[in-house]
Amino acid sequence: MNNKNNSQINKKRVIAEADTGFAGYNGARGDLLHQTILPIIAMSNNNIIPLGTGFMITNGGIMITARHVIEDFTDRKEIRDLNEPVKNFGLFAIFESDIKNERTKLSSDCYVGGPLRIIKIYSNAELDIALCQLKLVRKIDTGEQLQYPLIRLNLSIPKKGEKILGVGYCKSKVLKYKYKKINKQKIKILEYSHNFVTTGGEIVEYINKSQGIRCFPTFLTTARFDPGMSGGPVFRENGSVFGVICSSQSNCMDKDGYISYISDIGPALSFKVDILLERDKEPQKFSLLELINMNVISADDSKNEIKIIFDKKGKSFAIRPNK
């Protein structure tokens, strides 16, 4: 990890919030939700594969996604398009700000942003949740690390019937490559397209890992989650995020609507990541819950009702309110 390029800075944080009242909203390019909810791709010199969605939880580049979105590309035995080994791919999240890049001569419609490389992944085989550290960039004029908007978490368990909003990207595709000469240099330009989608629904029930076909805690919901939305955030009505888009049952529709699943974010609170704070010279390991208590990760008032208990083997568990 490049310490100088990935410090988790708390100053001047910007929180991106959502409201289930705008389930049909697509947003303006580069608005706060677009800046903190990012499409994930695998990219090599010859190929780009859209994978899913992720969202920022620290302004220093820690992102949450679904483990199944990226797991194939962390297995070097997997073979993808063009029979190209996965080891030749890099994983990236595509960032786009609302600030025009006045220094480029490529186009008058260029914005600050681009593919941010995923340089470290934290996951647990028991959950469909993964944490990614993004390699961030610095401002050209000042050298200051860009600060990214982040999402506020909710740590309580929603009740049956509560309205929710899922957000992600679908129908992502590479349109074509083209070449353009700039100052006698041949520049390769990629035309890439994706749809920013919001979808509303209700909580049907909470399913713990001892039930159903999945071995991790999930919420059953009536929301429709299309391919590519996996890994995206699911908002409560107060604008905070309690879960991660997991899957939908294809062609499954009844009188109550679509049947989809949301991974509970609570069990991931014990995940430990390497974080460089301004006070430190080297990264230290902190759990997500510790980072919430340190205010590196933003969470609403539900964090005040978390109780930590320990079993006989010393393993810790978080007890969360149901409301």
Topology summary:
Blueprint: E1 15-16, H1 32-36, E2 37-43, E3 48-56, E4 62-65, H2 67-70, E5 90-100, E6 111-123, E7 130-134, E8 150-151, E9 163-182, E10 185-207, E11 218-221, E12 233-235, E13 241-254, E14 257-264, E15 272-275, E16 284-287, H3 288-293, E17 307-310, E18 316-319
Parallel strand pairs: 1-8
Antiparallel strand pairs: 2-3, 2-5, 3-4, 4-7, 5-6, 6-7, 9-10, 9-12, 10-11, 11-14, 12-13, 13-14, 15-16, 17-18
Short description:
This protein has 323 residues and is mainly beta.
Main traits of this protein?
323 residues, mainly beta, Thrombin, subunit H, six-stranded antiparallel beta barrel, disordered N terminus
Q: How many distinct domains?
A: 1
Strand order of the largest sheet: 2-3-4-7-6-5
Low-confidence stretches: 1-6, 75-85
Q: Supply the helix-strand structural class.
A: mainly beta
Mean pLDDT over all positions: 76
